[in-house]
Give the backbone structure.
Amino acid sequence: MSGFKLKALRPAVRRVLALDAGSRRVKLLLAESDFGRLRILKEELLDLQAEGLVSADEVRSHLRFSLERLDNPPVALALPQHLSISQVIELPLAPESEVDKLIADETVKLSGVSESRIVYDFVRTETAARNRQQFWVTLCQEGDIRERILRLGIEQDELCDITTVANALIAAFRATSPLSSRAILVHLGAQTTVVVILLAGQGAFASSFQMGGDFFTRALARQLDSADETAEQLKQQKNLLRGPDASSEFAAIVDGWVAELKRQLSEWFQQNPAVSPDTPAFELIASGGGFDQPGLLEYLQGKAELPFQPWPRPSQPESVAPAKGYEIAFGAALQALGYSAQPVSLLPEDYRLAWRKRLGRQRLEFASAILVLVCAVALAFGTWHKLGLIRAKESLAKKIAAAQDNVQASDSLTSDLQAEYESLRPLFAAQQNTADTLRALGLLQQSRGKRDLWFVLVADQQSYFTAPPALLFTNRVPRTNVLGPSLDLASLTPGLRPLPPLATNSPPVHAGLIAELCVPGEPETSRQTLSQLVNSLQRETMFAKVDQLSDDLRRTVADPKVVLSDRDFVLAMDFAQTDFLQPMHPLRKTGAERAPSRRTGRSNQTPEMMPPMTP
């Protein structure tokens, strides 16, 4: 978008240039409203005589330059009061749809003409009268308004509002002194004096008469028989009402102005007898460059008995106040920006329609810009959120990769530890088996000393179930070679091959011992002795099971000569299982997959080949 500026995003009603064009001076006031906060951006005075601007073309050219320099803001124009009429009218109660027609009829009566087109506006005011409604009406001939616009050369500019001097003074005074309810505003300009009466903080009367500062100057020039410029200079430099330079003729001129002012005020009070000028008293407020004449206010306060006060300053420090002399321009700006409680606009219809289109278009552009901004913010937030998610995922991916590396390193270390452990595990298993065997032999020895029995065979289960049956010999074989695993029957009896183990049932081979014993005595006594022996051994934690071996699993290994055939018993004593007897599980096996044991790490697995034992 070429030529796009940020100011195009602002609604048109946020900034306005108020124009107060008098006969001698043109005052410009640029004001702005930022979300309800009013600010005066610039105040500029154009002195026509000092600048040498005599013709209307020169004035328009200079004013055009000033507007362009201020970036051509919307313009609010203050019309001279003598071009308009402002008055309070009362109407009977009627629907809102009929009020406009009733006021239109009244404007024709007030203007006194019917052929000229009238531009008017009105605002409702409070009234104590019953069954009546009251309005503050301002009207002006449309021709006078357009002629004023053409004279200033602002017909091509964006006119947002046109008001009168009286309405501008009301808006400015109410903004500056909102607590004042009864006041008389007197504005002494170069050509005209404007009188405004406020009652209950609302406009009640507005008038003007053609006696201003130039009237005093011309009268003084006639008395002195001098030029107007000389009389004006003398009037501004010397006090002609008091002191050594006092002039009775000039005082008479001022008295004439006072008489006209009092006459207009007296007529209004006579027309409104319910309003007392004394209770409460009206504030008499002076404004305009005419009151800058030395000694004038003191003369009016003293001899004329008019207690004029200068324009009040704001009661609150944060309030905005114009510079001296810019009261009318300030009031016009307040009304255009929507800060006036009693706004009256005399903008012609074509200008009003053009301004409404401009306002609607600019509001649409502003809303579109806000929407684009919101979308951009949402897009930026979404992008920021997505980037945050991407960064979080990348960080998580790095953590996962690092965790995988750690897991792989841990698995590698665990594998190395397992391999090292597997190389040492047979040694640990043999040590464990030896320790259990020695302790079991000790327990058997203790049980032998307390009971009437003897052991004819003690062997590990692996050797017991894999050993061939014993043979009968004429000569007894030495004890040390009867049950040894290295017994070679073929060497003792040439031509005789050992018998294979019984294959009817595969014996359950566990880590433990087989003990064959003889218990002499009566059968019942032998059984009780055997039961006591089994119960005492079962209480030992090193044994998982101690029970009598069934007849189908028995092996004939012991020498029959030391065995009582009817008192011979064989006990199977299973050691509690241990992890030393099995390879390690794969990595990350849960504890639920392991069987309980009497020692940490024991599991129920088939043992490896253990070294044989001798009785």
